């Protein structure tokens, strides 16, 4: 009788241990998935802000007809970061147009 009880208690105990481990692993995977979603959302937000800033800067200085070297370098760095975050080529044309502008406005 004692042998019968210990055998089934051990089976029940191992079953509980395996259930607990599987719940723990599931919890870890769920946390990793939620963390990845949050990181993706932050990355998308930064990419959107960079795109907006690049477009605004390009529109302003293209409208002025000239672009100081410091602004050109800053915009180029933002564009590099934007591309590294997975940004598409939507702003490439504007960056190229900004880079063609003179650094000093020509007097007419």
Number of helices: 3
Order of SSEs, N→C?
HHH
Largest sheet: none
How many angstroms does the end-to-end distance come to?
A: 107 Å
C-alpha geometry? rod-shaped
The overall pLDDT average reads: 90
Given as residue ranges, the uncertain stretches (5+ residues, pLDDT < 50) are none
Number of strands: 0
Number of domains: 1
The percent of residues in helical segments reads over 70%
Radius of gyration: 29 Å
Structural class: mainly alpha
- Sheet-strand content, in percent, reads under 5%
Oligomeric state of the chains in view: single chain
Fold and architecture overview:
The protein is mainly α and 108 residues long. The chain has one domain. The chain has 3 helices and no strands. It has helices at 2-64, 69-84, 92-100. α1 packs antiparallel against α2 (69-84) and α1 runs parallel beside α3 (92-100). The protein is rod-shaped. The chain starts with a helix and ends in an 8-residue tail after the last helix. The mean pLDDT is 90.
Topology of helices and strands:
Elements: H1 2-64, H2 69-84, H3 92-100
Note the main attributes of this structure:
108 residues; mainly alpha
Care to give the gist of this entry?
It is built from three helices and no strands. The chain has helices at 2-64, 69-84, 92-100.
């Amino acid at each position: 009788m004692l042998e019968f009880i210990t055998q089934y208690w051990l089976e029940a105990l191992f079953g509980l241990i395996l259930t607990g481990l599987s719940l723990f692993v599931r919890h870890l995977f769920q946390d990793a998935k939620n963390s990845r979603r949050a990181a993706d959302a932050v990355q998308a937000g930064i990419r959107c802000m960079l795109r907006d800033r690049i477009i605004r800067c390009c529109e302003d200085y293209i409208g002025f007809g000239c672009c100081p070297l410091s602004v050109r370098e800053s915009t180029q760095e933002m564009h590099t970061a934007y591309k590294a975050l997975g940004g598409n080529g939507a702003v490439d044309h504007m960056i190229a147009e900004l880079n063609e502008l003179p650094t000093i406005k020509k007097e007419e």
